[in-house]
Amino acid sequence: MMSVVHRLTAGWLVDHLSFINQCGYEKRKRKCVFNQGELDALQYHSKVRNLIWEGTLHLVQEGLKSGFLHRTIAEPSCRKNAVPGRIGCGLAELCEMAKQLLAVNESDHQAVHVLDDETSIPEQDLLSCVTQNSSNCAKIVELMGQKYLVPPKSSFLLSDISCLQPLLNYKKKYDVIVIDPPWENKSVKRSSRYSYLSSSQIKQIPVPVLAAPNCLVVTWVTNRQKHLHFVKDELYPCWSVKTLAEWHWVKITRAGEFVFPLDSLHKKPYEVLVLGRVQGDVKETSRKSEDVLPVPEHKLIVSIPCSLHSHKPPLTGVLAEFLKPDVECLELFARNLQPGWTSWGNEVLKFQHMDYFTVLQNES
């Protein structure tokens, strides 16, 4: 299962749609595939290849020198609203129920709810513990009359930042933690559609408790200098994370062009990832130092952006080059699930809704 369709020293060309459709969404004689209309399929040809590996790296490097990479970024104008907002909003509202459930007697709740052949999940089980699909096949589950597709070997917790205790009760330590925080900015403040967290609230995320020794921490950052400096100078030191690298996700069209001009003053064709490693107890860290692979300072992840708002490209295939096999991976503020990963967020099932998938019949 790989999202990487081409790899060179500069970085990777990634196909989001291929990754999702290789996630093992098979159940008995049915296979589910992501609706192609929601993701732009990558038409990989010589023009794209030449642009990326001969032009893009040079332009990004020049942009770094000139300061272009430190101005505000906006989402591509091609985004769509494919599924009514009620799906995400309904799930988010359940977080209020979770607060009440957990407040009754936190210690009485089990740490994990394992999916069986039943297709319906009781709301209190979903909200008060981590839900786990430990089987080798996908499962379709029902919640509040809506159906969601859960990939194999995946776990998730639906909650907001005030209800993280079930994830801590799960008692797993993660070798990789990917974070896509809801950053505070003027447009988000003006909109009632999206919630956001302040810098002080983001600091409260218990990454040190969730992280295994030498955990690789990857944080998505907008191109605002304020947020970038906060992650590198305040957030990572607060979590005892040492900054290792700054990568860029470069967004292109099907024709192999930037989605926006690189020198645009308002909208940029890239986003930033800051990679760091947890610096824990010296003895414990040194015992696992042989499992640590070096992370390069600069890499590019190039892909056609998903038309769904703020849907980031999958990092599984990219990060695999710098990790030992069978590591534990966690995504925070996730809005979809991945095989083999634990995911947390108040919209963690949003893009798992069956409306995003097409069911194929396997006649064989």
Short description:
The chain has 364 residues and is α/β, with parallel strands linked by helices.
How would you characterize this protein structure?
With 364 residues, this protein is an alpha/beta fold. The protein is 26% helix and 26% strand. The protein contains eleven helices and 17 strands. The strands form three sheets. The chain has a twelve-stranded mixed β-sheet with strand order 1-2-14-12-13-11-10-15-16-9-6-5. A three-stranded antiparallel β-sheet has the order 3-4-17. A hairpin with a 2-residue loop joins strand 7 and strand 8. The protein is globular, with a radius of gyration of 20 Å. It starts with a strand and ends with a strand.
Task: Please render the helix and strand layout as text.
Layout: E1 4-8, E2 11-14, H1 16-21, E3 26-27, E4 30-34, H2 46-66, H3 86-104, E5 112-114, H4 123-128, E6 130-133, E7 139-143, E8 146-150, E9 154-158, H5 165-169, E10 174-179, H6 186-190, H7 199-203, H8 207-210, E11 211-221, H9 225-238, E12 241-251, E13 270-278, H10 282-287, E14 300-303, H11 316-319, E15 329-332, E16 341-345, E17 357-361
Parallel strand pairs: 2-14, 5-6, 9-16, 10-11, 10-15, 12-14, 15-16
Antiparallel strand pairs: 1-2, 3-4, 4-17, 6-9, 7-8, 11-13, 12-13
